[in-house]
Amino acid sequence: MRKATVAALSTALMQAAALQAGEAEVVSAHAQCQQRVCRFEVTLRHEDTGWDHYANRWQVLSPDGEVLGTRELLHPHVQEQPFTRSLTGVAVPEGINEVLIRARDSVHGEAKPRVKVIIP
Predict the structure, then answer these.
(1) What is the CATH number of the domain that holds 100?
(2) What's the predicted TM-score (pTM) here?
């Protein structure tokens, strides 16, 4: 086989493996709040394959989709699944009694399923 063909095949196989990991999934989420400032703990599951495909963020959204807080995930969690990370200092406006948690991965972008969290 020519080197170019082998390289192209190798790239195609890596891309296919990355796509098989699917979207990031929010497994669970909860909030602890004092005077409308909250700390969120979110557990994600994603078949991280390495730097090419991993869960790289989750966000707290108002019911109308406004981003209230973002937790960036700066590295893959290949050997740690599912995993939990927290975000503190999220101000939730008066009148909002529930928020949505949205996960994201580096290949598929924002995941469609979102988890509702009741604001205590």
Answers:
(1) 2.60.40.150
(2) 0.80
